[in-house]
Amino acid sequence: MPIDATQPYDPDNIFAKILRGEIPNETVYEDEHVLAFKDINPQAPIHVLVIPKGDYVSWDDFSARASDVEIGHFVRKVGEIARDLDLVEPGYRLLANIGGHGHQEVPHLHVHLFGGRPLGPMLARI
Ligand code: 5GP
Q: Which terminus of the chain has a smaller tally of CB atoms within 10 A, N or C?
């Protein structure tokens, strides 16, 4: 069920529980600001979720409230993880779903990183 991304941060969301170690995850990368882990229901051979450790609901919330250090670090790490996974060639896709129309299900900002096969057109044409 998509979330309302204008709601305040819910500290009981599933990714907050992962960050607190209450739910296990398959970690790909972790540092003081960022956690990257395998999606539990992968949509491609490589499907990694990259999240900031701060309490941000969405990309616009992150861009409004996070520090320049957090934002710069997050952007750099997403690219670094893609390079470390050898995805630059043949290519990969980044996706951030936001709110109802974006079909965001977990109310903690996450960037999906997909790769490992040709990913097709960006959206189904309707
Ligand atoms: P959204 O639709 O919010 O952009 O995507 C949420 C993603 O989180 C989905 O791809 C879903 O498979 C993933 N997910 C949901 N719960 C868990 C979990 O407990 N562990 C992991 N690793 N991924 C999860």
A: C
